[in-house]
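Late entry, written up from scratch paper. The run itself happened at the end of the previous shift, but nothing got recorded in the book at the time, so transcribing now.
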Amino acid sequence: MVSDAADYNTKMRIGMWIRKLLCLVPIQIARAENNGMVALKDGLQIPSHVSYVDSISLANLMRFGFYDVVLNSWRGKIRVISSMGKQSSGKSYLLNHLSGSHLDVSGGRCTDGVWMTITTSEGDGCLYVLLDFEGLGSFERSEQEDMLLSVLNAALSNLTIFNKKDFHLDKDTESAFSCFHSGINLLEQDKKLFKGLFYIAIKDVDESDVLDLIQEFHEKISPICSKSQENFILKMYDGKFEIAVMAPYNRAEYYHESLRELAQTVYETDSCYDNGSIFLKDLKLIIAQIAVKDWSSVDSKRVAIIVDIVRRNLMCAINMGCLSPTNSDEEVQELVSLDTQVEVPDMPLVVGESMLINFRDSGLTLVPSKESSTSSSIRDLLAQIRLKLEAVVPRKGSNIDSWHSMLERFLSAVAERRLNRVQRWISSNTMDFCGNDEVES
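Output as recorded:
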């Protein structure tokens, strides 16, 4: 037992080390150009000959390299931290020193579009996704492109760091806020999105100016939130904002105080995703919707994706108790909840009043194949299932009648277990959409 526990801990440490190694190199996940957004596959533009008909088919095409594997396998909480602001305002530098990431840093324009990297925290067991956004207001980008980037940011981020090096709420900042405001009605409001904190980080502030700057920003931003519902902080950040001043980066206070206060705000952020699979699906779906300018409800797309997956896999789930393999060499994929990746378990078979027979339902064929004759296929299937019972209750000459009666009950129990398991698989994937017409049909 001690050896098994030690082996498990060793494997866990190796797994964590491999994950950190794979995530050292950030990956570009989207670009803005021609007044639109471009979805990427493994950091590259999708070739023009690859076609897609809507946002769902585009989302299915998107890949983020090793990050897909890391996110899909992460079962714990996820917080998404993003950085925005004017070009050369220290966006990437701040994220690197906050998290230990390796985002590109230079004096000029170095971030093109949106880049993603991942880090973990030993303290809270949370996975942190870091999104670094291209600088706002550059000559290379139009206001439309800045607006689309801001919508993507606000939809996904649990905390958006808005970097500002100027000491006052000037026209450039108001222009950026106006750009955010123009995108508030594009994506329909969603109970899972637009719930983050808008964190205004004012850079290079001397200690004597702290109180005056905070007061000035509060006086100018608070009226924005109180005038009406039609403003970006209320619509895109649920009315949550915080103003912080940061010491100049060449002083020790920047690292020991300013970054520590920001890290504490990150840890205390209530909003987060339940696991990596949920975040990854939303990330791809929202990028795809913005790319094809599909401004319909994100939740309706989630429903459509689930319905499509269930429909495509339903016959295989009934026939074999597993998901449809994408190729002949692929191992059996278990029936799982698509959000949590938790397997829909096999239940022991109860035959008679007390006899339990336990064997895997996944991969057990119960429907004859179309390629062979029906009669021979049924005989082959029955022979395989019969062996499961014979392994527990041998058939003897003295118990032929009772054994055949038990076999009938056993076959009924096998079919009933499969039916019940498929129904639980469907329920686990549609319970959030009860009452939806498409799901019901």
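The longest helix spans residues 400-430.
(Scratch paper discarded after transcription.)
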